[in-house]
Amino acid sequence: MKLSFSITATLSLLLSFNLLAADISVSEQYVRESIPGTTISSAYMTLTNQSKKSVTLTSITSDISQRIEMHEHIMTAEMMKMQQVDSIVINANDKVVLQPHGYHIMVFNVQQPLQAETTITMTLHFDNKENVIIEVPVQGLK
């Protein structure tokens, strides 16, 4: 089982680096395993724009949920607050890291629990009409 997960994770990374080699690359992607009794998870990754134009991530879709949103954490009145954002801009020749306590992806109403050592498929939709399909390993709770 662990060998299968390692092979899947390695293939996922190799595929994600090559998806839009001229424009957008996706790396270090993972989604958190479901907490028992919940239907919410979160996903993280690094988006690198290797083009000379800004690109905007406008939405994410997956067959695991009909409701996937982009969020960010902001500090308001000395309190950390999470809020939904409509898009995430990746400037030319730059990268954006989706990570805990920053930009991230929220997955609501997961149709079945996400289990560690499996993978899910997500499609990233960009304003330049490019769709990037990535395999995302499910990372166990720590």
UniProtKB/TrEMBL annotation:
Q: Which SUPFAM superfamilies match?
A: DR1885-like metal-binding protein
The reply to whether Disulfide bond figures as a keyword in the UniProt entry is: no
Q: Which Pfam families match?
A: PCuAC
Signal sequence, renumbered to the chain:
1-21
Keywords for this protein: Signal
Q: Which domain of life is it from?
A: Bacteria
Coiled coil ranges:
none
InterPro entries hit by this protein: LpqE-like, Lxx211020-like, PCuAC_sf
Task: Please identify the protein, giving its name as recorded.
Answer: Copper chaperone PCu(A)C
Native source species: Thalassotalea psychrophila
